[in-house]
Amino acid sequence: MSHRTATIWVETERPCEVRVVNEEHGVDASARTFTAHGHHYALVEIEGLAPGSRVPYEVLTDGEAVWPEDDGFPPSQIRTLGDDGKLRISFGSCRRSPGTVEEFGYDALAAFAERLRAGGDAVAWPDVLLMVGDQVYADELSDEMRAFIGGRRGPDEPPADEAADFEDYTHLYKLAWHGDPAVRWLLSTVPTFTIFDDHDIRDDWNTSYAWRTEMWSQPWWKDRITGGIGSYWIYQHLGNMSPQERASDPVFEALRKASDTTGDAGAVLDEFAEKADKEPASTRWSYAHDWGGIRLIVVDSRCSRLLTADRRGMLDDEEFEWLNGQCQGGMDHLLIASSLPYLLPKAIHHAESWNEAVAGGAWGKRGAGIGEKIRQAADLEHWAAFEKSFRDVAADVVAVGRGERGTAPASISFLSGDIHYSYLARVTEPGTQSKVAQIVCSPLRNPLQGRFKWANRIAYSRAAGGPFRLLAKLAKVPVPPIRWRMTDGPWFHNAIATVELAGRDCNVRWETPYRGGELTEMGRASIT
């Protein structure tokens, strides 16, 4: 998606030519499918569009019209960016689908789609939909997913009650994105970008070197990790790249070539996915897009972690060098999306930094073993649990915010999910020309329950931070290089947030469907 281009992603039932057409607007583009593990996909690139276009389109496979379906929804549209310098990004994370309202509440993404459907041009549309993690839950299955798996293997065959391979993942995506007509229509109309988090693969994915060692000792893990990463590359990551990046991508070229010559590129996809897991530097999942005076950087904080017996980093060296290069001034606004919040409530931040130090040996070998068990049991694996990475990003952000890398942006905002509640945190020290904030919106549909909700509510309070900072100090963790305070929230409802950027202004709005399924405003704040 840009001012003049768009890409339509399609999955078909058989190999074919896919065409996207609108005769009135002169749109007629096509692509051949490629095949992986018996599934067929195409990406149709459309060029020469006008800025601010709203072009209804049809999809044909081998000349037969297959989309849009006669389901009561408006025609799908190609929507390009306008040239007025404004941008509206709606985002969220952590969406369980399918499921009942009693289990997970109303779906914020479906409610958002229904409002756009009903309101048409009378309501404000997002220019971009950004989903920042846990688009599917491969380790917490719905009844529909269990029934699908039951038709393929026994209920006790490992990994029990979890997705096992690429085929299982394709059904997870079908349930999440095709099962709800409103969401399917939304994804066919609003340009969408994504990044994975742990449940897209497995809870605590890459939390530590010990975790990785344990997983690769399991005989079923190879099929699971290759299926998870390979399906993510097809169902999510292909849409994150620009047309130019896809055209030069060696994996995309290899898959299309193998599909044409052998009929199925599954083996090529598996080889790539296994290497991406075992050699993180071999693949970059992070990406960046510039839209006028706005830069969006989306950071992979899962697959590209540096996890060895001697070193631990949220990003490997190559990935951090790339991020460092992207963090530049000269923009009106800099947005850094990470599935994991960079700025957490103080109590949680200090607890995680303490735990990293203890697991690293600050309190001896026995303490390290206990620390690792706590790390995995309590999910202590955010940026705070990678102290050096946290400090490195802080140095980048402060340098940009002080105008040391070009004119300082009006705002620098982190966009995140994962933590299952929403809030706004503002950086207070050191001083910068840019306003620096952490915007969290989570979950789209998977709220915290019971004691977990109350524990996080307590941790969010200002008073809870002191004792955990003392604990971190006893483990010789240095004082964080920046200070921040929680200013809005916490909100524990299913929600979707929208960041609105215009000129040097940046505003954010959170909305929830928790009463009756229709979106209502939950919070609003001005970043600048």
UniProtKB/TrEMBL annotation:
Keywords: Hydrolase. It is an enzyme of class 3 (hydrolase). The keyword Chaperone does not apply. Its EC number is 3.1.3.1. It comes from the Bacteria. Residues 3-77 form the DUF7800 domain. It holds the Pfam family DUF7800. Residues 125-210 form the PhoD-like phosphatase metallophosphatase domain. GO terms for molecular function: alkaline phosphatase activity. This is Alkaline phosphatase D family protein. It comes from Actinomadura chokoriensis.
